[in-house]
Amino acid sequence: MKNQNLIFLIFTLIVFNSFGQKKELKAVEKALKTNNFVSAKENIVAAEKYDLEDFDLKLKIKYHYLKGVSYYAEGESTLADSYLALDNFKQVVLLEEDSSYKFYTDKVKPLKSAMLNGFVRKAKNALELKDYKTSYANLESAFRVSSTDTLYLYNAALLATETKDFDIAMNFYRELEGIGFTGVTTNYYAVEIESAEEQSFASESNRDLFVKAGTHKDERNELTVSVQLNVFRSMAAIYKNMGDTDNALLYIEKAKKIDSNDINLILLESNIKWELGDIESYKVLISQALEINPSNADLLFNLGVVSANSDDIESAKMYYDKAILVDPNYTKAYLNMAALILSEEEGIIEEMNALGTSTADYNKYDALKLDRENIYKTAIPYLETVLKNEPTNIDALNTLRNIYSALGDDINYKLMKEKLEGLDN
Fold first, then answer.
1. Residue 303, phi then psi, degrees to nearest 5
2. How far apart are CA 254 and CA 262, in angstroms?
3. What is the C-alpha separation between 72 and 112, in angstroms, rounded?
4. Distances (CA, A) of 215 to 188, 201, 221, 282, 381
5. Residue 419: how many CB atoms within 10 A of its CB?
6. Predicted local distance difference test score (pLDDT) of residue 18
7. What is the CA radius of gyration of the chain?
8. Which of 83, 99, 160, 243 could hold 169 in an S-S bridge, CB 3.0 to 4.6 Å?
9. Consecutive H or E run containing 200
């Protein structure tokens, strides 16, 4: 008798749960008819107090569909609610996929399509406003709706990198690497017979319709260039920024297998080698970069700095002169060249200070003094060019003031002094 009562009690609870579930879902449907999404979500929450496992298949599918519609709110939902809606729409498709019951899948398809278009539109609008965070969040969402459109996730990674959200960008890039993303897509073209102009089409089937209709001819397909190199190079740069040198070099090697002559890749590796103190590798890489782009003033300047640090003064001067030849307004090259020239006076001053009081020493002193003045005069044109390009450059003004003082050029000394005082005021 007790067992019978227990069975009856369980049966009663199941019936009650089923009744409660249906009641709450009917309330959701009623709220959705008037677009009262707040009420719909409240009733969804109320329905969730019952165990979802007790729902029969049809009721379970209906629950996920109604929850998706409630949280999607015709595209007016938050990003978090949109994700929740998408998860429920996916559940609908998944559950109906494994059953003979196919009712809500066709209803979900246009909703997912609208959701995708909404995310893309929001991403585009945010991008125009330079709100990159909102843009990349919506691009990621677009990818979650349509996982075959991998370019959405790639562009999200680019924007996350732009905003220095490196952890997020790296997660996107890792996911792209995991799915073997290359970015290669097919563009579809055909020539319009009336205008004789080639036009592009969104899909092959769309293009073929026009060809069959007789309005277009000479159809062709064109593959876009792979961007996998950019993915690996970006991952290497982010790892470098994170201080993970080993992984940075690992992804540089992966990128090299695609294109070992990519100049941005070479420069990235050269920066890492410089930071590691591997100067020889740095010089080799910069020289390689210069073979690719011999008119890069920055690379020439950097080789000048490396040569100067290695006490190879003549090579340093040669590279600075080349940098100036490429870019006549390259201020740093003029300043460094002047500094190199002026550094030669140190040995002269030491020699002057070591002289005695003999006639020979006095004559030697006068000769050295003349050499010193010639060094000053050689440096002056470089410093004056700096001031021509940057009239308020304090380093150039200070150095010229001191030079003119040493040369006894009172007019130019006072001029430099007045300029400096004007900057102080």
1. -65, -30
2. 12
3. 10
4. 15, 13, 18, 59, 69
5. 18
6. 46
7. 36
8. 160
9. strand 197-201
Report the C-alpha gap between 37 and 45 in whole angstroms: 12
Mean pLDDT by runs of 10 across the 425 residues of the chain is 42 42 72 79 74 72 84 83 86 82 84 89 94 95 92 96 96 96 92 95 92 95 92 96 95 95 93 92 92 91 90 92 94 95 89 84 86 93 94 94 93 93 82
Task: Using DSSP, state whether 385 is helix, strand or coil.
Answer: helix
Q: How does pLDDT run across 201-258, given as a tens digit for each residue?
A: 988 999 999 999 999 999 999 998 899 999 999 999 999 999 999 999 999 999 999 9
Q: How far apart are CA 69 and CA 122, in angstroms?
A: 19
Place of tokens 């998408």: 86
Per-residue model confidence (pLDDT) at position 50: 64
- Residue 305 structure tokens: 């700095």
Q: How far apart are CA 134 and CA 419, in angstroms?
A: 48
Other beta carbons less than 10 A from residue 118's beta carbon: 20
Task: Look up residue 52 and give its DSSP letter.
Answer: G
Amino acid occupying residue 339: A
If phi > 0 it is left, if psi is from -120 to 50 it is alpha, else beta; for residue 361 that is: alpha
Q: Which residues pair with 235 in a beta bridge?
A: none
CA distance 206 to 186: 13
